[in-house]
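Exercise 7.
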Amino acid sequence: MTERFYQDPYQTRLATRVLSHDDAGLTLEDTLCYPLGGGQPGDSATLTLADGATLRIADTRRDRETRAILHQTESDARLAPGTEVTLELDWDRRYRHMRIHTCLHLLGVVIKAGVTGGNMTAESGRLDFALPEGMELDKEHIEAELNRLVAADLPLAVKMTSGEALKAQPELIRTMSVTPPLHLPEIRLIEVEGVDLQPCGGTHVTRTGEVGRVRVKKIESKGARNKRVVVELAE
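Solution. The predicted structure, written as tokens, is:
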């Protein structure tokens, strides 16, 4: 399977064929659908058959054992292997995920502390930070700094490294709860030019300006020094 969401996260339409379809899910020769992972939700989409019939994809997951991408369909109908289909991504939802995911990387730039957790929806995203002693968070300052980085319209780029090389640069790993698969020969990095570089398997916009204006929705205490910061798109 070709994972085209990595080749071009802006591609929205794809002609492909069914490999298999059973109770576990639908697998395709190629897909645009990003599978749930790294705090980013799985994509939704619509499949159109040659006769015009459609089948809704409600979610996308990755099989832990085979690593195959499984498209979860809403209907009980099953498509035969070899069936030709056109996949149309739920682009509005995906693009909001891309904007919010990029915003969370910027949030990690503004708040220089270890990340203990994170998640996102199409409406908002959050990161949990383990704050060092004496560090306090100011909602207005964080929001202003986020919007400054957005307005700077910084380019993003994908870079590749190896697990061995990443072991020698532990400062690039921001998440304290999840470690990248350091046994792999290739690990994907996301660079925000001049301000951030870290391992990430999610989809992102190409420039920070695409994120648009953001708001800090709330800051919550999740322990003595653990703070949750929730951000949302303002437009």
